[in-house]
Amino acid sequence: MLFVDNPIGVGYSASASESDLVSSMEELSQDFNVFLQKFFASEDGKKYVDHEFYISGGSYAGKYIPAIAADYVKSGSLPKLEGVALGNGWVHPRLQYPAYADFSLANGLIGIHQYTQIKQRFNEC
User: Fold this and answer.
1) Averaged over 9-22, what is the pLDDT?
2) For the whole model, what pTM was predicted?
3) DSSP sequence for the chain
4) pLDDT tens-digit map of 46-57
């Protein structure tokens, strides 16, 4: 298992130059795929080319893991991508926000009064 903080500037990742920071999903996925290609071409990475390969991420990675995976598949690089996994992926806020109130009510985290208030104020968010 290989853990990578992505994009540059998040988590433990750092750069000496602000020009390395990305400003679009395209830049992010291209940078990550350059990393993957270099990794699998390296001495350490070559031994994994014949293994199953998955890309996963959590939370906001729900936005960029699909882009990374799509670019990787288009590149035709090895190893072949077997799948993608998202944990609590942040994919579409307009669809996801309303589910928080529903989930909270269904699991007893809030009462019907709080639920009604949240639903009424959703559009303000």
Assistant:
1) 86
2) 0.73
3) ------STTSTT---S-GGGS--SHHHHHHHHHHHHHHHHHSHHHHTTTTS-EEEEEETTHHHHHHHHHHHHHHHT-SSPEEEEEEES----HHHHHHHHHHHHHHTTSS-HHHHHHHHHHGGG-
4) 999 999 999 999
